[in-house]
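Recall the central idea of this unit: under ordinary conditions, the amino acid sequence of a chain determines the structure it adopts. In this exercise we apply that idea directly, starting from the sequence alone.
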Amino acid sequence: MNDGNSMRAWAAVALLAGLLGGCSGSGEKKTVTIDGSSTVYPISQAVAEEFQNTHRNIYVTVGISGTGGGFKKFLVGETDINDASRPIKQSEIQKAQQQGIQFIELPVAYDGLTVVVNPKNDFVDYLTVEELRKIWAPDSKVRTWKDVRPEWPDREIKLYGPGTDSGTFDYFTEAVVGKAGQSRSDYQASEDDNVLVTGVSSDVDALGYFGFAYYVENKDKLKAVPIDGGQGPVAPSLETVKSGRYVPLSRPLFIYVSTAALKRPEVEQFVQFYLDECPQLAKEVGYIPLSDSIYELVRQRFQRRITGTMFQGREGAVDLEKLLRESMK
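Accordingly, the structure predicted from this sequence is:
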């Protein structure tokens, strides 16, 4: 963030704003509930804090259950909005149909999954996708750095990564291993990216991965690893993610909005505010804004209440603008 505060500070600020609003005598307190991806959390929390500055009688709660954990709540009507770092799965669509839940899928920013090591690691200069697959595959025989490259130290690698309810886990395993959900299980897992940051930053032989914003927020404690997706090593940055050069670990991020929740004016107001303010706030918390033309299409998708998913099981590199235009024909 621009002011250097930790992402967790957003929660405290939002809570304070909500409490102050509740004491303002402005009438009945209304609530908008959000849960889901820890990757999207910083954007939603930033939007919530700004929104509550001018809407003191509306309290926005933002939780972190992981994309999959958030969908479990969203698809039984427990939350109004789900933060997601991957498109909705077919099994989740079926659950929505069974429960009579209709949703609007809204891309809000780009992210680049970031592979990180401890800053004291002085030998990992880059990793190829094949080396990442070798490390993270379910049948991986990699135990030491030497198992990855013979010239690297014969010391045990300590792995850190998202848990299985995380959209980041799904995306990484699909992009690197070749199938979503396929991964070795002997690693330190958490749906909270701050836990992973702490793990890697305190272990000289650690290797982990999570969303770009958490790396940006903790640059002094982490070292990003350039990834060779076939065109030479490329480090994650605002420029390489937006240009499409950072492959295969660039992805769109989403919010999913319940159409039933939109019948409440406070939810309608919040989502409209989210889409208006997201380009600036996403950048402030370390993510890559979509293009102006894509944001305009996203606003149209919301205003026209176009439900369902554009992806139909597709992940990875996509032409987001093309998908949006096709979905609105």
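The chain has two domains: 8-109+252-327, 114-243.
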